[in-house]
Design goal:
The protein is 43% helix and 19% strand. By secondary structure, the protein is an alpha/beta fold.
């Protein structure tokens, strides 16, 4: 095992340095270039996924009761992949049986195995990306980047932070206390990092690798066996990742049931696993209803949850009006707003804003933003790449219901995908509301729907932001302002509400993007998330230190 650690030591050192400096760094190229990944890599990845469709997925686990196919592709592709449906108790028993050998491997050995597995996952980036695209509705570019290299960055972050936390614990010490003229009291001490127990990682339908990898790799690195419960509509990306981990474990003489896949069409299996006394931690990304159920019914487990929130942008003024509009247009359009970081509410003073192009009324800001969205999506190839497809019928229903609220700034339109005619592709809807319409805009409307809210003043917008984030949670907050004093007001409000703030983004970075090794995704300080991912606290809480002395 030490050989694997040394083999990948430079990768780990690079991650540790990047985490300490928080600059730009990634060992996994985000451009799907044939020059980087090979001329045939994309075709081979797609063929590998195609070869799995309509068949039993090649995975054997304890407690299998039958096979189940649960995935529904937003692109209308019939996947028909049948996964093992296993008994909850059998999965837990298998995890606990695999735990002692994994524990005995120690931090160094575990880190080496996981780095090897991550490198192999990276080599299958196109295969996993195609699986992400078909199961989530993401566009091809986002599926590759977010489902592949960016997700791998987050896995490496978790491994590196875990290594750092564990490496800070010395393995042994000699304690010698002087006793004056008498011989000193001498104790030999050993300190061992011990996982808390079985970890359950519950995935989401929209980002099945990006949101799953941090908890999965953090739990494994710190000595815990893991049961991965993917969303029923996005199983394949998780299954491929689990299979790679199991292959590496087997090659290293370890029990592959250290990592298992729990697949079911309903919620009963997830509930049975979550409430099992042996499950010591739960990572969950998804809706509030099940998140709150976990909070109420799984008190024995530490819960790391990312749930629904209402993200906001305050537009007070700008000295780059055109750049602001282009940035916001892409931000609202990307993956049809199906990101936990996408802005829903844009707060604009009712009297309008000052810009480098002169004063703009509230109505003009809305019209210009709608025009920027139109311009972005005018080229069909760009539109389908940016928008992807809506992931569920519920999202389609929300878009249609939103057409009946407020005033139309930009109506949503259905586009017919040239390659996937059954896909539900909708352009963003933009509705104008008054500040008194809080019953509408303070509820999350997941999907391509945003509200342009007329507020009495910039300071009223600041106060609304703070109230909203405290009450409903948010993953992101954006601000456009040329007023240094108002920027300071917003910085203070974001600090009090504990939400990440992006200021005057007008170029190639959007408020809903999170860069690996630099940005800290979520703060863990508001209702949208109770953990700040890939921080020391997120990782170190997954293990304890047991000492012995003699």
């Amino acid at each position: 095992m030490t050989d694997l650690f040394e083999r990948h030591r430079s990768l780990l050192d690079g991650a540790l340095h990047a985490l300490s400096t928080r600059g730009h760094w990634s060992p996994f190229p985000e451009a799907p270039s044939p020059k980087v990944y090979g001329e045939t890599a994309q075709a081979e990845g797609q063929a590998a996924v195609q070869a799995l469709t309509g068949r039993d997925y090649p995975l054997r686990q304890p407690g299998e009761r039958g096979r189940v196919a649960t995935e529904r592709s937003p692109y209308g592709v019939d996947l028909g992949i049948r996964y093992p449906e296993c008994d909850a108790q059998s999965l837990v028993d298998a995890a606990r049986a695999a735990e002692p050998a994994w524990q005995a491997l120690g931090p160094r050995g575990r880190t080496g195995v996981l780095l090897e597995a991550l490198q192999r996952i990276h080599r299958r980036s196109f295969e996993i990306a195609h699986a992400v695209m078909l199961t989530t509705g993401q566009g091809t570019m986002m599926a590759f980047q977010a489902g592949g290299p960016h997700a791998q960055d987050r896995a490496l972050e978790a491994i590196a932070v875990a290594w750092k936390a564990m490496a800070d614990v010395p393995e042994q010490a000699v304690w010698e206390k002087p006793q004056g003229k008498n011989p000193p009291v001498v104790l030999n001490k050993r300190f061992e990092v011990v996982g808390r127990g079985v970890a359950l990682v519950i995935g989401c339908a929209t980002f099945p690798t990006w949101n799953t990898y941090p908890g999965l790799f953090a739990a494994l690195a710190t000595g815990n066996p893991v049961i991965v419960k993917p969303h029923p509509h996005a199983v394949l990306p998780a299954a491929l990742s689990v299979s790679v981990l199991r292959d590496v474990l087997t090659e290293q003489g370890m029990d592959p049931n250290l990592v298992t896949l729990a697949v079911s069409a309903g919620t009963q299996l997830a509930q049975d696993l979550a409430t099992h006394p042996a499950v010591a931690s739960i990572d969950f990304t998804g809706g509030n209803a099940f998140g709150r159920w976990l909070q109420a019914h799984a008190p024995q487990a530490r819960l790391y949850a990312e749930m629904a929130g209402v993200n906001l942008v305050v537009i007070e003024s700008t000295d780059a009006y055109a750049g602001m509009l282009r940035n916001l247009a892409l931000s609202l359009s990307l993956y049809s707003g199906q990101m936990c970081t996408t802005t829903q509410n844009l707060l604009v003073p009712a009297a309008g804003i000052d810009t480098d192009q002169g004063h703009k009324s509230f109505e003009q800001v809305g019209a210009d933003l709608a025009a920027a969205i139109d311009q972005l999506l005018a080229e069909p190839k760009v539109a389908f790449t940016v928008l992807g497809a809506l992931g569920s019928p519920q999202t389609v229903e929300r878009v249609e219901q939103a057409a009946g609220v407020g005033r139309t700034v930009r109506a949503s339109h259905r586009l017919v995908h040239p390659d996937y005619p059954l896909a539900e592709v909708r352009t963003p809807a933009l509705r104008a509301l008054d500040v008194d319409d809080a019953a509408i805009y303070e509820q999350e409307c997941f999907g391509p729907v945003s509200y342009l809210v007329a507020v009495p003043s910039a300071l009223a917008a600041r106060d609304l932001v703070e109230r909203s984030v405290r009450a409903h949670g948010a993953m992101t907050l954006g601000l456009y302002s040329t007023d240094a004093a108002f920027v300071d007001h917003m910085v203070a409000a974001a600090r009090r509400a504990k939400v990440a703030l992006s200021i005057n983004l007008t170029q190639g970075v959007m408020v809903n993007q999170s860069a690996g090794f630099s940005d800290l995704h979520a703060t863990g300080g508001n209702p949208a998330a109770n953990a700040s991912y890939t921080t020391l606290a997120f990782v170190a809480d997954r293990f304890v230190v047991v000492q012995r002395r003699w």
